[in-house]
Design a protein that fits this description.
The chain has 199 residues and is of the alpha/beta class. It contains 8 helices and 6 strands, in the order H-H-H-H-E-E-E-H-E-H-E-H-E-H. The strands form 2 sheets. The chain has a 4-stranded parallel sheet with strand order 4-3-5-6. The protein has a two-stranded antiparallel sheet with strand order 1-2.
Length: 199
């Protein structure tokens, strides 16, 4: 059991042991429920065919293979936010502020790990943008990659690929100092973004 839990990202041997001890305190009904949920995970959860968010593969929860966001007619189709991972999308949704749509790339460009543009969902993004541009005159593509080396590389790739595409306005999430931080502890990239995006 420890070896199985350790295969999950960020789980070390001590944490795996704590999971097992916690599970031993549960009754058999809960353990059976957890086991069945794990067994049916691949069957019940799919990727949205449009944005690649997680989508429940149940007849009453899914419309034509779309997630709850893509199937919501109230969403602003003229705004499309590009993210690296589904967990980034979840963080944005928890804010409750953004009412546009999303596109999950499935990672960031990192040739050392085999993540190149061809292995990520850039072709799907371009197809989507072509389709959206046929319906709307102007759309905003919000680049929301992480402020890491691979995230910055991915953002530059998106800008270079789409900068001349008509009808698309490229924007980027603001970067800068976090609330409560001190200038003396901030790294150079954070300070650079904070200065460039001052208001």
């Amino acid at each position: 059991m420890v070896q199985l839990f350790r295969k999950l990202p960020g789980v070390g041997p001590r944490q795996a042991a704590r999971f097992i001890l916690a599970l031993m305190e549960r009754d058999e009904v809960e353990l059976t429920e957890l086991g069945n949920a794990i067994i049916n995970l691949k069957k019940n959860i799919k990727l949205c065919k449009e944005c690649f968010n997680l989508s429940e593969n149940l007849p009453d929860r899914q419309i034509n293979g779309l997630c709850y966001i893509c199937s919501d007619p109230r969403r602003d189709r003229t705004k499309l936010m590009v993210l690296e991972k589904v967990t980034d999308l979840d963080s944005m949704e928890k804010l409750g502020i953004y009412k546009g749509t999303y596109h999950v790339l499935g990672g960031a460009i990192n040739p050392l790990n085999g993540a190149v543009p061809e292995t990520l969902r850039f072709k799907e993004l371009e197809r989507r943008l072509t389709s959206i541009c046929q319906e709307h005159n102007n759309i905003e593509l919000i680049i929301a990659t992480n402020p890491t080396t691979t995230g910055e590389t991915t953002a530059l790739y998106i800008r270079d690929t789409l900068k001349d595409k008509p009808g698309i306005t490229l924007t980027r999430l603001g970067r800068g100092l976090a609330s409560g931080s001190n200038l003396e502890y901030a790294d150079e990239i954070t300070l650079k973004h904070a200065l460039e995006q001052r208001r």
